[in-house]
Every structure is written in C-alpha cells, then in structure tokens.
Amino acid sequence: MKKFDKKDGDFSRKSSRTSTGSKDRFSKDKSKAGEKSTQVEKSEYKGRGKNEKPTYGSFQERDNKKKPFKKPFSPITKARKGKSKSETQPEYDLTSIQKQAHKDADEIRLNKFIANSGICSRREADKLIEKGEIAVNGKIVTELGYKVIRKDRVMYKGKAIRPEKPVYLLLNKPKDFITTTDDPLERKTVMHLVDGACEERLFPVGRLDRNTTGLLLFTNDGELSAKLTHPSYEVKKIYQVTLDKPLAKNDLEAILEGVTLEDGLTMVDDLQVLSLDKTILGLEIHSGKNRIVRRIFAHFGYEVTALDRVMFAGLSKKDIARGKYRFLNEKEVINLKFMNKSKNKKRPK
Asked: What class of enzyme is it (predicted)?
C-alpha cells in the first residue's frame, strides 16, 4: 500500500508538472505568435532585391524629434586671388531664341505665363485653366488662348504667381539621397544638396534612384522640364554600370537587340564593355522608364552593384565633384531649348 501510495503520489505530481508545463508552453507560443503578428503589421519597405522586386523587413521605431540636417556638400568653388568663392548665379539672355523680347506691356498667353512661373508645363497649365483654377485680376478664366500682360495679377489656389527668373542647375548626385521635393519620412533628399543655391524655387528634372549617382538637372522652367522628360524627344542618357559578375557575350547581344520586360519592349542605343573583367559597362539609352537600367540586367540574372549617370541631354559631369553642383551657362541652356523631337520612326521607348 505504501508503495502504491508513493507511486500514486509520484504520478499525481508528474501530472501536475506536465499540465503546468503545457500551459507555459501554450502561453509562450501564444506570445510568440503575437510578436510575429506585430512584426508583420509593422513591416516596412527596405528596397529591392537582386531580382528588382520589393523587399520588406521589420519596422524600426524612429525618434519623432526632427533632427537638423547637416549639409555635407557645397557648390563648386573657384579660387580668386587666393580666396575661395562660391560660383555665382548667372544671368541668361535668351532673347536670341525667342521670336520677340516681351516687355511689361506686351501680351503673353496665360498658359505660358503659368509655365514661366515654374508651376507646370504649358499643357498642364491649359488643364488648370479649363478646370477654372486660375483667376486673372479677380476673375476666373477658363478660355484657352487667353492673353495677359505681365502686370496682371494671376492667382492659383489663392496665391499670386509671377514669372521667375529662369534658373538651370546641374548636380552630381551622391548615394543615399532621394529625388523628391518633400519626403514625409524625413529622409535625405536632393533638395538638401541645392538648398540656398538661389532664391528661386527649383525642381528636379526626372529622377534618380536612391542608390544611383550622377547627373541630375534642376530648373524652374516648367516648359523645358516637360520637354526633357517627354518620350517623343528621346533624350539621350549615358550610364556607367557595374555588375556583380562578368557580362556574357550572348547576353550583351540580346540586350542590344531589345529587351521585353513586364511593361513592354525596351531598346538600348549602345552597350560597351569598359573593363577587362567585363563587369563595368557603358550604356546609352533614351528610355525614361522607372529603374529601367537595373531591370534590364536583372532580367538576365545580373545585379547592378553601382549605377552612375555620366551624361544627360548632352550635359556631362566634367569638373563637378560628387555632391556638388554648378549653374548651366547660356550656350548650354540654348542647346536644351533648341532640342527638337526625334525624327526617327516610332520605336519602343
């Protein structure tokens, strides 16, 4: 009896420990599941993988206090009499490429007036006029082709707009800067790099990815910006591409013949091998599709480890160090203004 009681007692204690342990394991599993669900809910975009598809990771809490941005770069400096002085903003005389030089009393189309203010292109200005979002001297104007003089008071969204002095600035963009005029996550943007360059508002022409370096043009000329980003002008861009492995000859030939991606066929104008190990390439392309260079090589199983835009619309980054900028000279601006639509037959962009 004592032996039975002892075993019975032992058995009861074991069963109690087993039941308690199962409860603990169940509660731990439940807490782990809760943690996993919390992590999934708080996932955030981390960039793109080798196949150029978005990747996500665990969310990291950020300090809500806005930290002041310390500008690490500065404009190009020129030595004058032993002193270093920042490049001054030039004045452009563009009357040579205009039909007539407008005086204050001369009439100008309303859409051009709006475009010259840097808000948008002429075509987009026509849409604003049709929607009744533009007022001239207190009256809503919806008539296309309406003309104003420079002394007229033109209003958009309750604010007066006026033609600004044209500004054209070329930046050699470094890595880890986002091409946007405003970022809600308060990350570093390209606007930090040109802050204080001039009094006029500047906007980037097109965009470069966060990890892409090289030439990026800024201007307040809405009409020119629309021209340089429109597919019909086939603006030439040249990139230096660095791959994670040597480029095979058959892949090089296939890229030159044209690459069909998820958004259609993309043509490459030229592709040259620049290094003995066949990992550094020179690529000429006119397409302005999003992340097009990276997607082309990802299609063939390559990862672009470095991408640098060395030429844009005939402009090069000669004498512009990484993170610095310079103003375009008058000749360069005139060349951009004279750029015409491509005379080539229609082809995939």
From this structure: isomerase
